Amino acid sequence: MWAPSHRHLCLIFLLACVFACVFVLLIHHYLFHSGLDLSLLCPDRSRVTSPVAILCLNPNTTFSCPKHPASVSGTWTIDPKGRFGNQMGQYATLLALAQLNGRQAFIQPSMHAVLAPVFRITLPVLAPEVDRHAPWQELELHDWMSEEYSHLKEPWLKLTGFPCSWTFFHHLRGQIRSEFTLHQHLRQEAQRSLSGLRLPRTGDRPSTFVGVHVRRGDYLEVMPLHWKGVVGDRAYLQQAMDWFRARHEAPVFVVTSNGMEWCRENIDTSRGDVIFAGDGQEDAPVKDFALLTQCNHTIMTIGTFGFWAAYLAGGDTVYLANFTLPDSSFLKIFKPEAAFLPEWVGINADLSPLQM
Residue 51: its pLDDT value, please? Predict the structure, then answer.
């Protein structure tokens, strides 16, 4: 039998190394020059042409990758600014506009840190090094949908602004509500809290819950001094509650606010159907938000926190309408018809304090 010599073995080893190098180079070219094939990481995700590393992060849930159309390409993100409700609006707008324009949406790590502990969001997170080196073009959005936003050509686009208008994303309402599904432990905790509530006067368990969000805090100065506007007052809340009392049998009003002391002093509890359930912790609003979303209906005053609570809760919503003077500069950046759903019910604010 023929036995290979030492020289033959060396040649075979060298040929094997050459073939291995060629194979590695082909794989590298396939993955990074033709676009990172995320099917290797996420079998149900279509290819993204931008060579970026992605993690589909979804704490407390099983790993899954969001599905997107096969035509999705490019890299879009949004600059996260503001508080909880602001970033919900930014997330929903980014998702909707990216889908509309056939682009892949990514969120910043800071937005993920705000929203992922609360919701089962699915948009991938942009790696910081990609954010630093990408050839971004920026687009500042106004707070309503415009035709121009349907035909954006930039492959590397960073959106800015504070969009929170239903006109951007309401056609995707089912998907948006799915993205903003509470983690199970938060939903269960909120439902336990509601099921444990009893009417103060009778001790009966309520059957209809109306979440009430009263926005105060910094708005007490910002609205009158900067925007020529007002916040919800005692008279408005009374009218809103009476609207529900006239249309629903024995509703109970679950009050949350970043000004709970004011609420206790100014909301009429004489009917025995008001429960002050909010903890008033402005820097940790998750408990209050979860509670509101599990109610059947909503009374909101102003602000994105109340908007999202109402949008996710469904049911009837009453909101504070016409809360600025006609010459307020706020109306240049805010369109009421784009801010509140058409089926929602507005009750006009009392502007007399601004005219004194």
Answer: 33
